[in-house]
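Task: fold both queries, return tokens.
Query 1:
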Amino acid sequence: MGPENQSSVSEFLLLGLPMRPGQQRGFFTLFLGMYLTTVLGNLLIILLIRLDSRLHTPMYFFLSHLAFSDISLSSVTVPKMLTNMQTQQQSISYVGCIAQMYFFIIFAGLDNFLLAVMAYDRYVAICHPLHYTSIMREGLCVLLVASSWILSCGSALSHTLLLVQLSFCADNTISHFFCELTALLKLSCSDISLNDLVIFSEGVMLLFLPMCIVLGSYVRIGTIILRVPSTKRLFKAFSTCGSHLLVVTLYYGALTSVYLLSSSWDSKDIIASVMYSIVTPMLNPFIYSLKNRDIKQALETCVSRVNCFE
């Protein structure tokens, strides 16, 4: 196919969520509420961590970046989905679709790396408590977050550069609520073998490697705890790792169901995508704050300061 036909479509059509026309108002209200909860909840986490000096630790440093990534991940897809529901317009421009895919890959990848970094932080805190301060120094924390950003941006850029070389000649209907990479590749009439190879290669390195770090960290933590079992130690480990472990389970469970257990983009894939890209970012503030004494104390301090000005 000639270069002049490289991108013969000017827009794509997003079919959105699998629902009946009469259900749109209910779904619009539901997802608007979820999005506002995601933004406000994660902004509150970031604000508390910034204002309270007791939260200036590596764990909360990573959590603040995860909160920012969660806000961004939801903001890439949900506002457009809500606009389409409200206006009954399903179209998205070619450039807008590519941009949405690019930023979605960045923040989905960033979530993935930050969860691995946080698992390593919990491993050091429990398995090497006496050396925690010297190991998790400020320079290493900044380096880990910066590396997560660089790897995520590099992955997104490689997929985007390969995608824009493809041709989209006929069907421009995306059976999804956002411009997902795999769904876009299915619409191309070009050879996508290189794209598939890059997806597989990066998937092994950038998805399974962080997952292995998470699993390895918790296996090591479990081994250390069970070596000298005690109720107090088990409670301390659960209070330290419980929130992160729950988030990891939700995130990787939904992600695995999308990319490993599905053979086609049907309703179950869309539901799984909603889980890891919308529901999990919304739940994170609740999971990390409801049973977190430090966050509760920071919130109480912030509220008392506000009351002092009244």
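Query 1 returned. Query 2:
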Amino acid sequence: MLFGGCLFFVRALIDGFAKAVWMLIVGRMLLGFGVGFANQSVPLYLSEMAPYRYRGALNIGFQLSITICILIANVLNYFFAKIKGRWGWRLSLGGAMVPALIITVGSLLLPDTPNSMIERGPTEEAKTKLKKIRGVDEVNEEFKDLVAASDASKLVDHPWTNLLQRKYRPHLTMAILIPFFQQLTVINVIMFYAPVLFNTIGFRDDASLMSAVITGIVNVVATTEFKLVAACIGAKFGTSGNPGQLPQWHAIVVVLFICVYVAGFAWSWEPLGWLVPSEIFPLEIRSAAQSVNVSVNMIFTFAVAQVFLSMLCHLKFGLFLFFALFVLLMSIFMYYFLPETRRRAYR
């Protein structure tokens, strides 16, 4: 988290004062590394610090914080875009120094997890820390479980190689498919390109940004409507892709369905896409498996974002039907193959 915060801060500094395109590119690269550090460390930290019965709630809090910040960013971008002189984008990018400082300073104040302390040796200190975190003196049973899990993990010399063992193949499968399917819900491009999408279907620039704010609000409050979105867009534009004039009622319907879609994602795949992998990995492979989970997520975030606009130009409303098919397939897969993790989480 410390490295991630430092990278976020340097990135915001470079992008905020950028004088050339290459500076923006370097900033984005640093942002990517920072996101990798944060997404790898934060869910693991929360999973190891939280009491078992509250682990799910605290991990969902991680995702809720992200959605709140997305909303704040959308609101700020809406007002920054109104600054005369077209320099508001510098505030949008450079303002990221504030949350970067919060992450950096906050990481210095956070204690090590009992699991980490046990792995490094000072078991009595770890027990004392566990008592402080739980707020009770009776932690013997949980402490014994943590020590046993740590001893088992120390027998594993090569966790990356062990991921390929037969007994860990179900874990590896989920570490790959959960983030893969999560990105094929195409939520990120909806959030990335919300102003572009709304502008494409006939909104003015201001209205496009405000519509992005609306979807952000729905995301926070709600934390498979592709077919209906496709029907609405297809009914108006057909396959020509010519926006023309969008009636007000039609625009409202499109925004409504996109908001319902965002709401559906916010209480399902958004938090659980991070929570479930953090719960199903045993300690001996947890770090390696979580790395796979984050890597697959980032790879397909990049891939979908790169092809989305091109596919939108070629497939028009059919693009939403294309991704709706994946939503159907992933729902069937998870229903039959992902076990319930409640009260069964690895320690």
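Both queries returned. Flag for query 2: The chain has a mean pLDDT of 78.
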